[in-house]
Amino acid sequence: MKLVINKNYLTAFLGIVFCFFQANPAVAISEQQLVVLGAAKNIEYVGQQITKAYFYKHQGIRTANARKDLEKGMAELDADINKLEASVLDEEDKNVLLFITYTRDELKEILSQPYSEENGALMLDFSESLLEGANLMASKHIHKDNVEQSMLVVVKQMEFLLERINKYYIAHKAGFKDHNNVVQLENAIIKFETDLKKVNAYHYPTSLQSNIEKLNKFWPIAKRFYSGIEKGALPVIVMASTDNLGKQLNKLLAFHHKAATTK
Questions:
Q1: Which element (helix H / strand E) includes 207?
Q2: Which residue, 236, 222, 225, is CA-closest to 59?
Q3: Do residues 11 and 38 make contact, with C-beta atoms less than 8 angstroms apart?
Q4: How confident is the model over 97-111, as pLDDT tens digits?
Q5: How many CA atoms lie within 13 A of 143 on its CB side?
Q6: Helical residues (DSSP H) of 88-144, grouped into ranges
Q7: Residue 157 — φ and ψ, nearest 5°?
Q8: Residue 82 near residue 101 (C-beta atoms within 8 A)
Q9: pLDDT, tens digit, 9 for 90 and up, residues 178-208
Q10: Spatial separation of the C-alpha atoms in residues 102 and 147, rounded to whole Å
Q11: Whether the predicted model's global pTM rises above the 0.70 cut
């Protein structure tokens, strides 16, 4: 199974706050801010996805899906950078964008080369560089005064965390057993559980209760696989676990997107 990236939700996220506040110019948030926020959040995500797919491909596991994820991830990264380049940015954001662009170019260079341990280490470093830069940019443009927008961000963050967990898991199998990588995976698990509590505290309609139940039922099982990173390698099961959880999150994303744009 393959975790489908909901780019429609990512793109639609750009218009959520504008649609909500456009009736009140005094509190309206500019479309430029929304473009920057949406592109930056997507860069956080694809940075994890690209590196995860890189290791799956070169470990010979689900190679067809890995190639597709690599191509799609790099295409989205290019598109997000183009959006940011066309936006009005302050000096700090411009400097961050230059760094993100440089990192993108380095990724392309590595992807054109044969696999090596050195290149694998660079892929891990570059995915963290993209995350750090994009997170800094996004943090300046997030507005949390809309409950539905905030919940949409929470659920999208959960998707990001699943990719992050999967990235460190497959990298560990590829021989990158640095203790810090294990700690990062464990931290992502903790953050996912924190966000899951927020999801459980939200009053969802009856139509989504089965998705919430499946999410809560399957998470403890997936967590055991994720947490067993140092006990044994089950990369196919881990990928399937990520896909299963992602399917439930997709339903919640659709709901929060609709709720945020219609209130």
A1: none
A2: 236
A3: yes
A4: 999 999 999 999 999
A5: 19
A6: 91-111, 117-139
A7: -65, -35
A8: no
A9: 999 999 999 999 999 999 999 999 999 999 9
A10: 36
A11: yes
